[in-house]
Write a structure and sequence with these properties.
mainly alpha; 82% helix
């Protein structure tokens, strides 16, 4: 059976390569770039072959061959990100068609492709010679690759869910943290056979704990995951996520202020969409708006404790304070034993009323939590709709601009042809006049000789 599949795959791949060569022979470079852009766009929007299709393995064979033949890190990053997007599209289609038997396979392939993509993207982003716009685009696409629909997430098996969420968080951190890491530190950690995902864990966990990077590396080498190590260090993963998100949000808000000040409409639209996407990502990673506030201020009890410790007292004063405290305690005990029975009953009744009020408050809090969850879900849907509309609008504007440029190009070409035609006619007239003059001169010369 494997030999049969291998033969079919070989014929299919050969056909693809033959067809590709034919297309390259007939289409110029600019057209090829345009076709490639359209194909990449369609790959994200359409799942193509899905696991329930008999020829699905051919689709995977072509992907593997493309990866095998790709040696450029930037191109390989783009290809892997495209594969990640296809796995997500296929997952969404399988959920819609209620074919859950293929979901485990797709989720596993998505996680594998996502991890490979993050390593390749990080390789480009950490390369000082790579263009800044390329780095920014790849990092943004890697971040987008961590966005999964709620329906797909809910279809992930419970025992796989922790790994699923950790891999998404790791890829998001790689997309946003690697660019700020010291290149020498990255080279040093890479020399220890650490992947970029592991490097990000080492750096972020070391920053948030009292552990050294070497100690974090030892924990990773013991086979412990990001969540497991964070839990061991008493660090919640969302603590790191909200720190990274807070920094990203602040940077985008500053850029948005600059764009508003300069009146750059394109940048305003792009940054507004990015901020909306960040809000969606907060919901995806359960990082609320309140958690984004840095908790650096000491609490009231800590302040009081500091004041007491710093207060200078003598031993005699301390002894007097203890005696006064004992006397006050004895008086309070005497008063407590002489309280009337009616007061005890009233206290019991009051306690019962408080318990009833507490239960009522608990019910209200539960209802409020449900409403907030529903509101968050609706807000997420609204933000996604806004993002979709913004993308469609941008696409439509780009299409109109492209058509306008084509019209201008056509008009310019026609004008150039008209001018060339007029020049040829003018040159032809001049040559005709010169020939006529030469003929007259020759004729006059001949008459004179005769």
């Amino acid at each position: 059976m494997k030999i049969k599949q291998l033969c079919i795959t070989s014929f299919f791949v050969a056909g693809v390569l033959f067809t590709t060569n034919s297309v390259y022979a007939e289409v110029d470079t600019s057209q090829l770039n345009e076709i490639e852009d359209l194909n990449n766009e369609d790959a994200v929007q359409n799942a193509g072959l899905t696991p329930d299709n008999f020829f699905y393995f051919l689709d995977q064979a072509v992907e593997n061959l493309q990866l095998l033949l790709t040696t450029n890190s930037e191109k390989e990053s783009e290809l892997l990100l495209q594969i990640v997007a296809e796995r997500l599209s296929e997952s969404e289609q399988m959920v819609d068609e209620e074919q859950k038997e293929h979901m485990n396979e797709l989720i596993e392939e998505y996680l594998v492709a996502l991890e490979k993509a993050q390593e390749e993207v990080a390789e480009v982003v950490s390369d000082e010679q790579a263009a800044d716009d390329v780095k920014e685009t790849l990092a943004s696409e890697l971040e987008d690759a961590t966005t999964v629909t709620e329906e797909v997430t809910e279809s992930v098996e419970e025992e796989k869910l922790v790994e699923f969420e950790e891999k998404q968080q790791e890829a998001y951190l790689v997309a946003n943290v690697v660019k700020d890491l010291d290149s020498e530190k990255v080279a040093e950690l890479r020399a220890q056979d650490l992947g970029f995902g592991q490097i990000v864990k080492v750096v972020t966990l070391a920053e948030e704990s009292d552990k050294t990077e070497e100690e974090i590396i030892a924990l990773i080498q013991d086979g412990k995951g990001f969540g497991e190590i964070a839990k061991e260090l008493n660090i919640h993963p969302s603590q790191i996520m909200r720190k990274v998100m807070a920094k990203k949000e602040k940077e985008m808000e500053l850029l948005l202020e600059e764009a508003n000040a300069s009146g750059d409409e394109e940048a305003i639209t792009q940054l507004s969409t990015s901020l909306a996407n960040l809000d969606i990502k907060k919901l995806d990673f359960n990082v609320s708006e309140a958690e984004l506030v840095l908790e650096n201020e000491p609490v009231e009890d800590e302040i009081i404790e500091t004041e007491v410790v710093s207060d200078e007292t003598t031993q005699d004063e301390a002894n007097d304070t203890i005696v006064e405290s004992v006397e006050e305690t004895e008086n309070e005990l005497i008063e407590a034993t002489t309280e009337k029975t009616e007061e005890t009953i009233e206290a019991a009744v009051e306690k019962e009323e408080i318990e009833e009020e507490t239960n009522e408050v608990s019910k209200v809090a539960t209802e409020v939590a449900k409403e907030e969850k529903q509101a968050a879900k609706e807000e997420k849907a609204r933000l996604k709709e806004l993002e979709k509309e913004a993308k469609e609008q941008a696409k439509e504007e780009a299409k109109k601009e492209k058509e306008r440029l084509k019209v201008l190009e056509k008009e310019a070409a026609e004008q150039a042809r008209e001018e060339a035609k007029e020049a040829r006619e003018k040159l032809k007239e001049e040559k005709k006049e010169q020939a006529s003059k030469a003929k007259e001169a020759a004729k006059g010369k001949q008459n004179k000789e005769e």
